[in-house]
Amino acid sequence: MLFIVYAQIPSEGKEVEEYRMDYFYATMWFIVGLILIFSISKENKVFYIAGGFFLLLGAWWLANALLPEQDLFAGGWGIALRCIAAAALVVLTVFFLRERKRNIRREEQESPPGKKDSANKGSGRK
């Protein structure tokens, strides 16, 4: 596999750096996705979705690097990636806002009624 990857990299010019960056980004997205799935998902199940999205990005970047004749960020493929990214962003935003509302309600129920007002007086917040 490693031989195939290096065989496709041009030997000189600007394209060499572009290929290296494609592999770097693919590796980075894979690492982020795996961290989200295996480490942080214990905190909240939404990180499974986020991790899956980053794994998809890693696969997309790797496929783009391995298929130099096909630009996966332009045309129909680029539009598909943007639609997937937009859907993931909407889903993750909805989950984030729901979780934030839950946390705010939980904090309001746990704190005594007078404590919240006195804490905000000194900080300048209302």
Verbal overview:
This protein is mainly α. The chain has one domain (17-114). It contains five helices and no strands. It has helices spanning 2-8, 14-38, 46-66, 75-110, 113-123. Helix 2 (14-38) packs antiparallel against helix 3 and helix 3 (46-66) runs antiparallel to helix 4 (75-110). The longest helix is centred in the C-terminal third of the chain and has 36 residues, at 75-110.
In a nutshell, what does this entry contain?
By secondary structure, the protein is mainly alpha-helical.
Write the layout of secondary structure elements.
Layout: H1 2-8, H2 14-38, H3 46-66, H4 75-110, H5 113-123
Helix tally equals: 5
Tell me how many strands there are.
Answer: 0
Low-confidence residue ranges: 1-7
In total, the number of domains comes to 1
Fraction of helical residues: over 70%
> Major beta sheet, specifics?
none
Radius of gyration: 22 Å
Distance between the termini: 60 Å
